[in-house]
Write a structure and sequence with these properties.
The chain is 30% helix and 2% strand. By secondary structure, the protein is mainly α. A hairpin with a 5-residue loop joins strand 1 and strand 2. Helix 10 packs across helix 12 and helix 11 crosses helix 12.
């Protein structure tokens, strides 16, 4: 009996030693050392189950549903400068939270030059009915889009051409970082890093960036349809909303004779994203170059064009040619069909003529007032979309 008791004590002692804090290996030690309290893998931020208004019905998530784990990894990848060839540029350099995930520069600065087009806002990308991405729609999915800037020589420098290393070199580089070993195992069950896994995580993070706390959303929740006056709007804002929603009436030469101005024909409420199969909007310049480019038919949601104080979140259009809402409205008010522009949206050329909206000053002011109601506040400050790396 005594020998059995001694044996039990010895086994208990060995178990205690093998499980003591001195021998414990934290599987997420590198994550904790790198990010401190900005990422807590035991208490993840809510990406997967955010509140979405019941009037929002579009969703292009398809086969890559947002998870708290995947979007957390996506957040790290989005802000990590190690994804560029010289460790100086991240996705967030061109898509800044403070500017609705766009850039105040006309062209964003990359590792070997500047971007070929202005950085598009990423607000509510999940809720776009148009599934293609980039201004010229060359990416069939958001997943494919996410790694194309990394593979671009000018932007992040892993092109595999012009003296660049290729994407496999980036995978090797990330595989040697302890926090990625831990994060990829946390999300996917294995430390193995692939481009597909990077794409899935980045797309989940981008799709999680949503903005539904605007004055528009407060009003829309109080009515059953967008064509009803919003109780929380001023008369001017309601006038602007009506102008935005209602189609115009044109004479035989494309001059507006009545109705609204038809913005919703391309940017339908309540998502305000671009309609699929749209043509270009008459802006056919080439950023930093000569000639024309008629392929730019994509656009971001009109939500959060401006901050709530009315400040633009960067210049507008793929060339950054407009720096105020007034100049944008002026462009649509007087469309000139430029020589060679065979891809102008049909809605902008009624009866074959460039539309002339004949806007009055009160109408312009009302449209601007309405567009400002589409901006929220949370998207600019929510820490789950912020830089997790220490400054």
């Amino acid at each position: 009996m005594k020998l059995r008791w001694i044996s039990f004590l010895a086994i208990a002692s060995l178990w205690s030693c093998s499980n003591s804090s001195d021998n414990y290996v934290d599987p997420y030690a590198n994550v904790k050392a790198t990010f401190g309290t900005s990422i807590d893998l035991d208490n993840l931020a809510n990406y997967a189950n955010q509140t979405i208004p019941n009037y929002i019905t579009r969703d292009n998530t398809a086969g890559n549903p947002i998870s708290d784990k995947g979007a957390t990894l996506g957040r790290v990848l989005f802000y990590d400068k190690n994804l560029s060839s010289n460790n100086t540029v991240s996705c967030a350099n061109c898509h800044q939270q403070i500017n609705a995930f766009s850039d105040t520069n006309v062209a964003s600065v990359g590792v070997n030059g500047t971007t070929g087009r202005h950085a598009m806002r990423l607000i509510n990308a999940r809720f776009a009915i148009e599934n293609k991405f980039f201004w010229d729609e060359r990416a069939a999915t958001l997943e494919f889009q996410t790694t194309q800037p990394i593979r671009n020589h000018n932007e992040m420098g892993y092109s595999g051409a012009n003296g660049d290393e290729d994407f496999s070199n980036l995978v090797t580089k990330l595989s040697n970082l302890g926090y990625y070993k831990e994060l990829f195992k946390f999300v996917y069950g294995t430390e193995e890093i692939t481009e597909s896994k990077i794409q899935l995580a980045l797309a989940q993070f981008v799709r999680s960036i949503q903005s539904f706390d605007s004055k528009y959303d407060t009003g829309r929740a109080q009515v059953t349809a967008d064509n009803q006056p919003f109780p929380n709007f001023t008369n001017q804002e309601n006038q602007g909303k009506q102008l935005f929603m209602a189609p115009p009436q044109f004479d035989a030469s494309g001059s507006r004779t009545g109705g609204g101005v038809g913005c919703a024909g391309c940017h339908a409420a309540p998502e305000f994203d671009i309609a699929p199969n749209s043509g270009n909007n008459g802006i056919i310049g080439v950023l930093g170059g000569t000639g024309i480019d008629i392929t730019n038919t994509r656009a971001p949601s009109l939500r959060d064009i401006v901050k709530q104080d009315g400040t633009l979140n960067g210049p507008l259009m793929h060339t950054g040619v407009f720096t105020s809402l007034q100049t944008v409205i002026g462009h649509y008010g007087n469309i000139n069909i430029a020589p060679g522009n065979t891809n102008l949206d049909p809605k902008l050329r009624p009866n074959g003529f460039g539309q002339q909206l004949n806007l009055t000053a009160p109408e312009v002011n009302a449209l601007m007032a309405f567009l400002k109601t589409l901006s929220g506040t949370n998207v600019y400050v929510d820490t789950k979309w912020s830089n997790p790396f220490p400054n």
